[in-house]
Amino acid sequence: MGVSSTSLAAFLFISCFICLCPELTLAQNAATGVTRHYKFDIRLHNVTRLCKTKSIITVNGKFPGPRIIAREGDRLVIKVVNHVSNNITIHWHGIRQLRTGWADGPAYITQCPIQTGQSYVYNFTIIGQTGTLWYHAHVSWIRSTLYGPILILPRLNTSYPFVKPYKEVPIIFGEWWNNDTEAVINQALQTGAGANISDAYTINGLPGPLYNCSKETFRLKVKPGKTYLLRLINAALNDELFFKIVNHTFTIVDADASYVKPFQTDTIFITPGQTTNVLFKTKSLSSNAKFLMAARPYSTAASGTFDNTTVVGVLEYNHDIKPFSNSSIKGLALPPLPAINATSYVANWTSKFRSLGNSQFPVNVPQTVQKQYFFTVGLGTDPCPKNQTCQGPNGTKFSASVNNVSFNNPTTALLQAHYSRKLNVLTSNFPAFPLNQFNYTGPPPNNTMVSHGTKVVTLPYNTTVELVMQGTSIQGAENHPLHLHGYNFYVVGQGTGNFNSATDPANFNLVDPVERNTVGVPAGGWVAIRFRADNPGVWFMHCHIEIHLSWGLKMAWAVMDGKLPNQKLLPPPLDLPKC
Predict the structure, then answer these.
(1) How far apart, in whole angstroms, are the C-alpha atoms of residue 436 and residue 451?
(2) Partners of 516 in the beta sheet?
(3) Phi, psi values for residue 554, rounded to 5°
(4) Which pTM value belongs to this model?
(5) pLDDT in tens, 117-141
(6) Does residue 343 form part of some domain?
(7) Where are the beta strands (DSSP E) in 383-513?
(8) CATH number, domain at 135?
(9) Rounded distance between C-alpha atoms, residue 65 and residue 148, angstroms
(10) 39 and 23 in contact (C-beta within 8 Å)?
C-alpha cells in the first residue's frame, strides 16, 4: 500500500525546511506543480574537522549544502551568486533537463562559469522523476565541499509504490581534505602522478570516531518498529563505497530516482554519482541500544593510492538527551564489510537491479537500435614534457580516455557552439569504435599513449542508441562509474572480460533492465546501455571518479533538434555566463 503524497508527514526530518528555509520561496504554477525559488550564495565558510579549521566553498555557508525539496512536475528557479574568487558552475545531477540544457551546469560544456561577483539563474522543470538526486559544483574539484541533496516527492495525490515510511533521512557520503583540493589536483596534473588522497570519508559531512582527532560523528536517531526511507548519495570525489549497519538489513526500492523491483540486502555498494533509496525497518527494542554503521572503499586501482579508511556513524534507539561522546560507543562492533577488492560482490550487486516495470511505471527500453557504439574506457599515458621529470608510469604522465581520445577542455561552452553552429569549436568526429583493437582486458599494448581532442558524437533527434562500454587494463583494471548528463539509460547487459558482439547480445535484458544515470563499467569487464536521444542539446558523459575526469575520461553527445517546436532546444537565457 502506497503513501499519499498529499501529506508531508513522512518528511518530519526535512519538511520544516520548506516552511522555514530562507533559500526557498514558492509560487503557484499551473495544475501540474509549483515554482520553487531558491537563492544559492556561494561563499567561503570556516569548517573544523579532524582538529583542523579551513575555509571551504559552500552554498549559503552550509556543509553539505542545503536540501532542495520538490515534487515531480515542479519548476525550480535557482539563483546562484558567486562570492568567491573561483569560477563556479552547479550541475543538478540526474535531472533530465528536457530542452533546458542551459541549466545542466558542467563548465565549458553547457555554460561558461559564473565568475566572481556574477550570478546565473538555473531554471528547469522536474519531469518524470521521483526519488533522490543531488547537486554539485562542476568545475575542477570544487565539488569536494559544494554539494547537497535533491529530494523529489511524488506528484500530489499520488503514492510511492512501497510502504509508507515513518520518516525520510538523506545520507550523503563524502570526503574531507585537510589540504586545498584545488592544490591537490593542480599538483597531480603538473607531476603526472596519481592525486594525493583525502584525510577522511564523511557521512553528512562528519568523519566519525575512527579518525585521529575527530570529534564529529553522524547519529541516526530512530524509534523501534518503524520504517525509515534512507536516501543515500555518494558525493565522494574518488571512491566507490560499501555501506552497512550492524544487525540490520535494507530493502532497495530506487536507484538514481527510478523505482526498482525491491530486494533485500545487508550491504550496499554505491559509486560516486549514484543515489539509492532504501527502506530500513528498525527492530522492536526497548533499551537505548546503539549500533555502528560504516562505509569503506571498493578499489582495484593501480593508478596510485586511495583512501583505505573507514567512516563510522551511530544508529541510536530511544536516544537520551545526554551529550554524545566517542567513548559512549566504545566496545560496539564494526559491521563486517566486503574486501576492498571484492569485484565479485560488486558484480553480483549490480545484477540484482531490475526496473519496477508495472503499468504505472513502464519500461521503455528501445527494442531495436539505429546507432551502435563501442567505447573503450580506461587509463593511459601522456609523454613527459621536455625538461620536466614526471611521476606517472615509467616517467610518463597519467591520462585517461574514451576510445583512446582524451578530452581537451574547450575555452567556450560547447552547447553555445552547437546552438550557433560554430563547427570550428564543435567537431563531430568522435570514433564510434576503437581505432586500434587489442585484448582490452589482457596484457597492455606496447604503446599506452592516448590521443587528445574536443570531439562529440552527433545524433539525430529520437535516435535509438546502444552503447557498449568496455573497461581496459592498460594501467590496471578498475571500475569506472560513467555518468550521462541529460538522460536516463537502461542497463541491458554486463559481463567480465572482453565483450563478444556475436554472443553477448543474446543475453541482454530487454524486459525490465534498471534505469539509471550513472553506471559502473566493471573492472575487467563491460556494460551495455540503451537510450533514446529525445533531448536536444550537448550532453556530457564522463567518469565520476574525479581524478579520471581530470585526466580526460570524458566525451560529449550532440543531439540535434527535432522537427516539432516541443522537440527543439530552448533559446539561451539572457543571463547565460560568458567566457
Answers:
(1) 12
(2) 489
(3) -165, 160
(4) 0.94
(5) 999 999 999 999 999 999 999 999 9
(6) yes
(7) 397-402, 405-407, 451-453, 456-459, 463-471, 480-484, 489-496
(8) 2.60.40.420
(9) 4
(10) yes
Q: How many CB atoms lie within 10 A of CB 405?
A: 23
Q: 414 and 542 share a domain?
A: yes
Same domain membership, residue 166 and residue 277: yes
Report CA 361 to chain centroid distance, whole Å: 23
Burial class (CB in 10 A: 0-12, 13-18, 19+), 153: buried
Q: What is the mean pLDDT of residues 424-440?
A: 86
Give me the pLDDT at residue 148, please. Answer: 98
Distance CA 153, CA 488 (A): 18
The percentage of the chain sitting over the pLDDT mark of 70, rounded to a whole number, equals 92
> How many domains are there within the chain?
3
Q: How many CB atoms lie within 10 A of CB 409?
A: 13
- Segment 96-116, tens digit of pLDDT: 999 999 999 999 999 999 999
Q: Which residues contact 165 (CB under 8 A, 6 or more apart)?
A: 3, 10, 227, 228, 229, 279
State the Cα–Cα distance between residues 122 and 102, nearest whole angstrom: 8
DSSP for 327-361 reads GGGTTPPPPP---TT-HHHHHHHHHT-BB--SSSS
Other Cβ atoms closer than 10 A to 432: 13
CB 175 within 8 A of CB 236: yes
Cell numbers placing 38: 531558491
Q: What one-character DSSP code corresponds to residue 9?
A: G
Nearest CA to 21 out of 72, 56, 61, 57 is that of 61
Same domain, 289 and 407: no
Which of residues 7 and 53 earns the better pLDDT score?
53
Per the structure, the complete domain to which residue 453 belongs is given by: 371-567
What's the distance, Cα to Cα, between the start and end of the chain in Å?
A: 52
Three-class DSSP category at 296 = strand
59, amino acid identity:
V
For cell 541516526, the residue is 220
Beta strands in 87-153 (DSSP E): 90-93, 119-125, 131-137, 147-153
For residue 300, give every residue at least 6 positions away whose Cβ sits within 8 Å of its Cβ, in sequence order, or none: 341, 343, 476, 477, 478, 479, 523
Beta 250-255 vs 275-281: how paired, if at all?
A: antiparallel
Beta carbons of 401 and 378 less than 8 angstroms apart? yes
Please indicate, yes or no, if residue 26 is contained in any of the structural domains.
Answer: no
Residue 272 near residue 235, CB atoms below 8 Å:
yes
One domain for residues 56 and 182:
no
Same-domain status, 410 and 531? yes
